[in-house]
Amino acid sequence: MEKFQIEIWRWIMTHFMPLIFDIIPLLIFVILDSLGKMRYALIGAVTAAGFEIGYSYFAMGSIDSFSLIFAGTILLFASLSYYFNNSIFFRLKPAIIGGITGMIVVVTSMMGEPVLLSMADRYSTHLPENMSHTLQNQYVRDQFTNINHYMGFGLIIHSILTTWAAIYTGRWIWFFVSVPGMYVTIALCVWVGLKN
User: What pTM was computed for the model?
Assistant: First the structure.
């Protein structure tokens, strides 16, 4: 059964990798904001999100919904921060998005229709043939259900920590809690879900 766990791990990390695009605009924001130029930092973050949309289009031939949602949230929270001349709105973006996502994942677990399993079924046609057959195995489906449960609570906890960091810490601590902290949270949730 360990082979299935490795394939589950690869699938989840592949489908959560679009979150990696969150690093670049936030890193640009933190660097420029450190120089005391919040408005330039916001413009830089929005520009980076725009470049990532362009990259997504040229690399894949289309723009997926994850990229659009990502760019839209960057634009929304950057606009709020720009309008109110306060970076806290932009700094709360990862916490708000993570909290909403965590609640959706928890609710789908409670309803008995885990969103990770639904995503796996939906995108199974894009997976290698051996992996799409693996998704039909009940053990693998149970693993996705376990991971979905832990992922929801992990994202909510991460959201709370990111909110705290956005309000009470400096920009670099906030950055490391919000972005690398997200990947650590996802990896831990997958690991715990696979072990239980």
Answer: 0.79
